[in-house]
Amino acid sequence: MLDKNAMIAVFDSGVGGLTVLKELLEIMPNENFLYFGDTARIPYGSRTSEEIRSFTAQIFRFLTTQKVKLAVIACNTITFTLLPQDKEGYPYPIIGMNTGMKVALAGSINRRVGVIATEATVRSAKHVESGKEIDPQAEVYLQACPKFVPLIEQGIFSGPEMEEAAHEYLASLQKADVDATILACTHYPMIKDLVGGIMGEKVTIVNPAYETALDAQRLLAGRDMLNSAKEPGKLRIAFSSVTDENKKLAQHFLQRPLPEIETVDASAY
Prior knowledge:
This protein is an alpha/beta fold. It has 11 helices and 10 strands.
């Protein structure tokens, strides 16, 4: 039986998943969290499905050793690459990223939704499926943005290089006349203002991190697994490669004092 006071694991290919952790910490401040970023092997978005599934299985095995009560996949690429059986056989429940499609369509007038994501997430076409399930009349336009994650992981959120890439990727969505755009990568909230500025004030920018955090809270509440402690929970952060750069990025993403970042080689599991 799982311990309701055990840690909630949150993981991503890099530091982007900290945008999801930030929402989780605000919604469930009394919970204990373990964040893992596979920074040694980022980016996942340009890797094959087989690689992504293999890396994720290693991370799941690591989390099993930590006796967590829930694993939150804070990565769209991983979420939409895994097969249902990839999440079976572990002693804790696993949830992935919310597509954000329900929120996007709720705020859309013309039923045209843009999705910016990694190449792997675009290949999965899961956002198209989600849109059609919610509204058969919805039109979903996918745009891969392979330059974004490497730039963000270097701490580049603005400037000529990022702006040039953003204009290049968003042109197709502007041409499609979308009135909602989903940030379907957990790194992208760091450039939300840039994306919003280019798309214009009539386009709603949707960050699924908040909806994902709510999904996690609902799951735990439904299983009577919310932490019973009254005081703020504890936070652990581990990367597969710890550098001064990703420490600074983590601080920038999370906007709170950080614990000492641990090094965990996920490939050992």
